[in-house]
Amino acid sequence: MRLTTKGRYAVTAMLDLALNARTGPVSLADISTRQEISLSYLEQLFARLRRNELVTSVRGPGGGYQLARASENIFVAQVIDAVNESVDATRCKGKGDCRQGHTCLTHHLWCQLSDQIHQFLSGISLAELVAKEENLRIEAGGQQTIREDKIQLSVV
């Protein structure tokens, strides 16, 4: 089981957006540069995030994207769901046809694990991730601003 690049990049980009929200709308080009994610890939992800009302776009000079609501009210699972990503531990993608059209012996175990992971990610807000990132930077004694650092995000 693994979270694909799509889910990881979506969460990373949203965290970057949340970290830089104080400065106004954030351009995808800036996120692309900071996080080393292709601009065209970010455009695809943000189209889905916008459709799911997690971000809004601001046109014109100084435009870009901003969170559609407070970071306390946006959760990692919502971001992953918005880009049509699933964190699924089953081999059959939850369909129950694991073994030649039949349910395997451990199907229900893996379904429960998938549910637990989704529930765990549903309890983590962008605000919590922002606070953790800022605390890590303070503990490290880094003098660089948030905009200069690349965010490292791991979902275990």
Automatic annotation (TrEMBL):
Pfam families reported in the protein's UniProt record: Rrf2
Key word NADP present: no
SUPFAM superfamilies with a match to the protein in the record: Winged helix' DNA-binding domain
The protein's name in its UniProt record: Transcriptional regulator, BadM/Rrf2 family
Alphabetical list of NCBIfam families matching this protein: IscR, rrf2_super
Gene Ontology, cellular component aspect: cytosol
Keyword annotations of the record: DNA-binding
The species this protein was found in: Marinospirillum celere
Keyword DNA-binding: yes
Gene Ontology MF terms: DNA-binding transcription factor activity; double-stranded DNA binding
